[in-house]
Every structure is written in C-alpha cells, then in structure tokens.
C-alpha cells in the first residue's frame, strides 16, 4: 500500500486533494497557507482536513520506517522468506507488524529458551503432533544433567509450546477481540494510603469496576492518575475459562496422553504470556484514545481562549490584585507600552481605601485611561468593588481578566527581555492589561500547557499535546493576521513560514530600519527568502500602507488580479475596496486562470468587502453577583451570572466570582442528550447558571445552564 492509498483509506477525502496536499506539504508549505491560498489544488480542503492528511502521512511514514527496521533485523538472522517479506510489506498497522516480528524478536532469557538449550524442542514438537499414546515414556528419553526427570522434561516442553502459542497471530487476535468486547476495568485501593488527604479526591475509585469499552476518557485518565500516584491498583479482568476453551478448540485436535500437556501449556501461555501482554496493550491503546480526546478538548479550549474578545487599541490601567503585598497598578498606552507603575494598598492589613481611590482617579485622568483590567486571582472581587467606587472624570469600562499563566510569563525569558528593569509583579500586571487589549498577542508568549484550560494535561502524551497545541496557536494567529510593525517575536514566530529565528530577524530589522512601509520590504529581512515570503506575507499586515492590499488577507501573488478588477471598473484600487455594490458586480469567471479559480477569487472579494476585519467579537463588560463572596453564600435554586472558564468532555466549569468554580455536568447543559459540550457553551462565554447543589466540605458546586435572564 502506498501513501496515497493509506490516507484515502483512513480519511475518505478526495484523491486529487490528498495527492496535491501531500505535494504541497513536501514542498514545506504550512497548513494555514495551503488551506487559505491553495484551494484550487486541494479541492477546498479546510485546516482540519489538511491536518488529518498530515497526521496519516506521519503515521504511514513511521510504519514504513518500522518495516525497514524489522526487515533488516530478520534478514540478519537469515530468516527472511519471500512469503514473510510480502506479509510485512502488505501490513497496514503497527500491531499486526509487531505480531509478525514477535517470533524473531531478540528475547531476554526465557523459560522456553532455557528448555531449548536443554534439548527439549523435539519433545515439544511430539506433543503438538498429538499422536503419541504414551508421552511420559517419550519424555523420559530427554532426561539429562539439566533435566533430572520426566516431569522436568514435560515442563520444559510445555514452556516451548506456551511460547509458540503466544506467537500465534490467530490466538493473539482472538484474545484481543475478547478484551475489546468484554474486558472489565477494576481498581482496589492501596490500604496503607486510603486515609491520606491527597487520596480523597480519588475515593470514588477505591473499589471500582466497569467495562473498559464503556469507560469515558476523562474517567480512565483519572483512574490512571490515581494509580500513578500510588493510591490504587488497576487491572483488567476477563472470563478466563471461556478464553481457555476457545484456545483449546483451535489447538487440540485429538484426545490422548498429549492432551493434558497441551491444556497445561495453554493455561500457562494465557496467564503468563498472552493475557499480561495483550491486556497491557489494550490498556495502552485505551490510554492513547483517552489522550487524544483530552488533547482535542484542550485544543478547542485553547482556540477559544486565543480568539477571545479583544478591547483593541485602548489606553488601559491594569491591576494585579493582592492583600498583604498590595495591588500592583500599571498604565499602558494604546499600543501596550508601559507608561507608569506603582502599588496601592486598599485591603487588609493596610486598608488605605481612601488613598487607593484617589490614586486610581488621578492615574485614570493623567493617562487618559479608557479601560481597566483586574486580574481574577486573590483579592479580585474586593478590588473590583473598590474600582467601581471610583469617580472617573471620563467613562471607563471595567473588566475582570483571567490571570492563568501570568506568573509563568512574568518570570520568563521573554518577559525579562521586554522589561529588564522591572520585577515580576510589574510584568504580571502588564500581561493582565495586554490580555484585555489583545488576548492572542499576549497569550502566545506563554507555553499553552501553563494556561490551564485543559484536564489531565500532564498525564497525556506530551509530544502529541505539544504538536496539537502548536498547530492550534498557529491556526489562530494566522486566522487573525499579525501587524508586522507592532508584533512581538513570539507572535511573529507562529506566522506561516516564519518561525522563531526569522521572527527575531524581523524585529531586529524593524528596530534598526524603522517600520515596514510595504509588504515587499519584508524580503529585505536577513535570511527571509522567497519561500518564507510566499508562505507568510499574506498573514503579515501593514497598517496605513500606501497599497491598501498590504493591510488585507489578499496574497501579494493576487495583487495583479485585484488591480485588473479596479482597472476594468475604471476606478482607483482604493475606491473598490469596501464598495460592496461594485464588488458584487464583478464577473469573477473573467479572472480565472490555471492557478487561481473561483474559490480563491470569492475569498478575495470577501476580503475586499471588509479588509483586515478582525474575526473576533469585541470584549463585553461583565459583573458578578455582588452578594456572593464565598461558597457559604450559595443557596440551591439561586440564579447567578458566570463565565465559562474550562470545558471538558463531562461538562464545563464556571467562574461565579468566588474561589471555587462550579461544574455544569453534561446532563445539566440541555434537556436533550449532549454529544459535544462545545455546541452549547464556549470558553469565556458569559452565561446564567442555576445552583443545584453545594457541597461545602468537598468545595464542590453543581450548576445548571439557565436559558433565560436573571
């Protein structure tokens, strides 16, 4: 099977689209570039479909590499037959491939290997032939210094038979099938640890049993975490007698003195070799599937967070709240530059409320503040109430902003380079303010795993997680576009075709030569060649450029077509941009070429209607219920405003303005069955919830999504 056939089988995407996409990927084109600017070649495949092609292309290449390794290893043993070579070549998955390799795999010292060295393989063959009437007398002939008696000879022969059975693909597949259908996942608490405080969050799994194929991914990951932390023991269980009878039916062909020996070998093979190996294989497969589910949820959450609503270029006063150490206050320009910082102490123990109110009013006036960002950590609610008491001369909008990951940023190399003369508290407050202005531009500076919008992110495959999150960030950055004259190195590094090194070169060029005035100037950046320009230029925007197309998603390779459209309409280019009536009257079929057809031309018209439009919604002001300050203030039946702050497969968590987030279980999201939580809520969505249950000792709050108003 070749690469194209392999991807076709796994995706059901059009053959031509797959073939051309693979060619583009082999030419080092990025997913965002292919999806946006090569629609004619791919047949209009989107980023998700192109991502599938990338995934199965990688799988196929890994499979082919493993085949090469296995073929070489078997060849070195002089055991490679033409039949085996063909079987390996035709194998389409790693599990079947490893089964073929199993008999040839170098093994550590085994019972079967010892028996072979003691000359017992001929006896094992006699037993498996199943036509000897007195196997004990036959076994007696194999006694020697290492095999003292008949029993030892028969035992050694059974070890060899057990290994043969273990290597028989039909038997392995039989057990796999039964495990996938009927395996029970069971847990038992480690008695010496069940009373530990850290174990209590796992107490639901101290004595647990359920069918593995019905265990949802989030529960499996929770159980495996409990096992890794040493609080429980986990195993799979299967109906042993049923499996043994099935293996016997496939193995035993007569009823004589050999039969009991084969039965014992079957039981030994199953309990010592087959079941431990294949149950671990299934548990590993279930863990991988659970990882994939968790990573998908994390990626969706991250996408929603990165595409969160910006307030845009406004002058912002940001506050990182605190009690004893005070509230760090910074004033930022409309472009996010730090203009002022100081600390106020409105809360206990200093309680300088009067001084804090006066200071905030003075700063807002002095720096012409348009919006205030308050971090949602310790003392957030108290600080929000304080700010709303300030008498501002001009209208000021107040927002509470997620602090998740701000401490990671403030201590990072990026933050030290941005603000070498300020401590972590100032950097943290700046990050909070910039998140309000543009969440995407600020959050790309933080490792996505530190943002805290997933579950079990430390338990899943870290390489898979990193790949998925990097792809998500890349997709978000390129879907919004980047102002090349203000973007940071981390933001630029996610632009299609750019990467960290070229991002540094762009900023260095900008610092040395001033802002870029047109897109073609990007080619002057050190080491930024034609390929990088092709991949990245359309995602890099230049505000107030002489050519208005430089601040749009129109690719430079299509400028000629747009200019021809304007010429045909006998109008300057600047006058057709934004003119919906004129744009709708353009006959696109007149501009089709071998390279550019209707899909790209339709995208161009859409972009010309609203060039540079930010696809993100604008931020909205939000206020928590001022009467709810702690979990003790909650009562069943209350309706409260809240903000979705995390989404999982089993529901979503909601910030209702206190330390503990409440959970809306999937069963409480809608009256009908909920297949995908994201179809009902999205991250940072402002919603109304109803309090269903409050468990104060366990700090748990059960909520229901309320469809109406407060």
TrEMBL record:
InterPro entries: HHH_9, NA-bd_OB-fold, Ribos_protein_bS1-like, RNaseH-like_sf, RuvA_2-like, S1_domain, S1_Tex, Tex-like_central_region. One of its GO terms (molecular function) is mRNA binding. Keywords: Coiled coil. Residues 637-706 form the S1 motif domain. Pfam families: HHH_3, HHH_9, S1, Tex_central_region, Tex_N, Tex_YqgF. GO terms for cellular component: cytoplasm. PROSITE patterns: S1. GO terms for biological process: nucleobase-containing compound metabolic process; translation. Residues 53-94 form a coiled coil. It comes from the Bacteria. SUPFAM superfamilies: Nucleic acid-binding proteins, Ribonuclease H-like, RuvA domain 2-like, Tex N-terminal region-like. The keyword Phosphoprotein does not apply. This is RNA-binding transcriptional accessory protein. The lineage of its organism: Bacteria, Pseudomonadati, Bacteroidota, Flavobacteriia, Flavobacteriales.
